[in-house]
Amino acid sequence: MSLHLLPIAELVRRDPVAVVEHFLARIAAHDGRLGAFTLVDAAGARAAAAAAPDGPLRGVPVAIKANIDVAGWPSTAGVGSRAGAIAAADAPAVARLRAAGAIIIGQANMHECALGAVTDNHWHGRTHNPHAHGFTAGGSSGGSAAAVAAGLVPVALGTDTLGSIRIPAAYCGIFGLKPGWRVVPDAGVVPLCARLDAVGPLARSVADLAAVQAVLAPMAPAQPVRRVALLAAVSAHADAQPAVAAAFAAAVAALPGLDVATVVVDSPLDPLAARTAAFIEMAREAAATFAADRAAGGISPMMERLLQMGEAATPAEIAAGGEAMAAAVAAVQAALGAADVILLSTTPQPAFPFGRAEASQGHYTGLANMAGLPAISVPAGWTGDGLPVGVQMIGRAGSEATLLDFGGRLAAALGAYRAPSGWA
């Protein structure tokens, strides 16, 4: 079996030099069409492979999103004026991967400033969906997801502020984990929104996610999942496309076979208002974070308009938004008081062609960020046109291992994962 098809548990048994050469060759062969990487450190990867320490990720190549510091690499956050912003040290998340034997192979493309879910980057180009060229891979961790889905790396790091790990995971048909707030240290990460940001892994299986997350942060033992909450208010405020609704229905139908009951929770919740409020908060903070880049002309015109939207928010709008987010958090906590996890579609739609705008992409995913809780997206189905669809689960604080265990069981029951064609 080709090395890029092997799980991490098998890769760590192979010669790290051979593994790295295999993945470097795949990146060279395929990334010109995919656009997942903004930087490939072939020399650094080869040197690291030759000296790879023993550890749970020995010799495993990892791509790092461009807003996470890697010593000696530019920390661009997808912004045009940051090519010279060279990181002096690894972010703690990257340092932990290296200590476990992982090989940091390249920097993944992302949506500019992490403020968006398309990864059609004005400065660094488009990242295409491995299942459909010309379609978005999602974002903001689009390069991370596309590289993993196409088998250019076994695993990648991303960040998630309103769904930026889980949205591209769903669009690219892979697995993505957003840990709880600051479970993985966010030092060395260009911030977007302090109360919403999280660092986490993307991979092609739950087992691979678990192997990486165990290195990134300690996890409490997994607990049984017996009751799953369904949020009635979410469905009432956003109409999922038919393939998304069908995949969600299939996930719900699979639960009795996993010895799990469902609980419909009808808490007062306006997810649209909460998502809008969160986006305004993100834009306001980003306007300050990237002030120098704006002055230097390093922000694209489209991103500048989004930042100005945040700055234009009135005190009354900000206060109302805070209330909407607080109500969303209360609804999520109430649901987790009645059940072990919450089950939702990951996005209301599958991936779409570049040039379209889908404002509802973070409609379902943002709830976990507002509550600071862990969430996982797993493949759940397919459209008639061959595009993947995901479902996500939100868990209580500290339940990363529980989500990984239950997510793996549900994914196995659904059997929806398949690698994209054309990347052999």
Walk me through the structure.
- This protein has 424 residues and is an alpha/beta fold.
- The protein folds into 2 domains: 3-216, Amidase signature (AS) domain (Amidase signature (AS) enzymes), CATH 3.90.1300.10; 227-273 and 318-414, Amidase signature (AS) enzymes, CATH 3.90.1300.
- 39% of the residues lie in helices and 17% in strands.
- It has 15 helices and 15 strands.
- It has helices at residues 8-11, 16-34, 42-50, 92-99, 142-149, 166-172, 206-216, 232-237, 242-254, 271-289, 291-295, 301-312, 315-338, 366-371, 400-414, and strands at 37-40, 61-65, 103-108, 120-121, 125-126, 128-129, 132-136, 155-159, 175-178, 199-203, 227-231, 261-265, 341-345, 375-382, 388-395.
- Helix 2 packs antiparallel against helix 3 and helix 7 packs antiparallel against helix 15 (400-414).
- The chain is globular and about 55 Å long.
Could you tell me the number of beta strands? Answer: 15
Multimeric organization: single chain
| Name given to the CATH homologous superfamily of the largest domain | Amidase signature (AS) domain
Number of helices: 15
Average of per-residue pLDDT values: 96
Helix content: 25-40%
Notable characteristics:
about 425 residues, alpha/beta, Amidase signature (AS) enzymes, 2 domains, eleven-stranded mixed beta sheet, two-stranded antiparallel ribbon, 15 helices, about 40% helix
